[in-house]
Amino acid sequence: MKFKPHLIFLFFFTSLVFNANAQLKINVSNLEAIKGAIYIALYNSEDNFLLHEKALRKSIVPVESKSVEFTIKDLPEGEYAVTLFHDEDNNGNLTTLFGIPKEPYGFSNNAKGGIMGPPTYAEAKFNYLGKPQEISIALNRLL
After folding, report:
1. Which residues contact 4 (CB under 8 A, 6 or more apart)?
2. Residues 31/84, Cβ–Cβ less than 8 Å
3. In terms of Cα–Cα distance, which of 92, 86, 126, 121 is closest to 109?
4. Where do the structural domains in the chain lie, given as residue ranges?
5. Fewer CB atoms inside 10 Å of the end CB: C or N, the chain?
6. Class of domain 22-138
7. Quick check: 75 and 26 in contact, CB under 8 A?
8. Rounded to 5 degrees, what angle do the CA atoms 33, 107, 55 make?
9. Of 10, 27, 19, nearest to 129 (Cα)?
10. Mind listing the pLDDT tens digit for each residue in 1-50?
11. In a 3-state reduction of DSSP, which class is residue 11?
12. In angstroms, rounded to a whole number, what is the distance separating the alpha carbons of residues 107 and 82?
């Protein structure tokens, strides 16, 4: 059999870029009610952060207990930020009062933001290493 170094390189490169076991587990805690759903959005750039239509991945997870676990599979290594909210009234939106969230919400790194708005991408971002990893997000409520 003839040695083919380009095939070895291709195999090694693909195993680095696409790891079928690569998954990010998101643990959501501090749920006040067992109803509605958790809306999750994953972002990979500051330019798209908080623009729901430009999220890299989006999911809706039904709430069936006081904590929710969700896994994002086949995620490439990189820098990401997660936003989520608990849609308690099941209307498909984050309910607000004069722009202030009435429903619980959270960000990766448990970033809080300030009195004038949500946290920045820099505050919420984390490095995903391309192998099984977990993050925890505790929900907050302003109103």
Report:
1. none
2. no
3. 126
4. 22-138
5. N
6. mainly beta
7. no
8. 105
9. 19
10. 555 544 444 444 444 445 567 899 999 999 999 999 999 999 999 999 99
11. helix
12. 6
Cα(130)–Cα(55) distance, rounded to whole angstroms? 19
Measured CA to CA, the distance from residue 52 to residue 6 in angstroms comes to 41
Structure tokens, 77: 């290594």
User: In 3D, which of 90, 108, 113 has the Cα closest to residue 28?
Assistant: 108
Tokens of 125: 């971002």
Q: What is the DSSP string of 56-117?
A: SEEEEEE--SSSEEEEEESPPSEEEEEEEEEETT-SSS--EETTEESS-EEEGGG---BTTB
Q: What does the alpha-carbon distance between residue 80 and residue 82 come to, in Å, rounded to a whole number?
A: 7
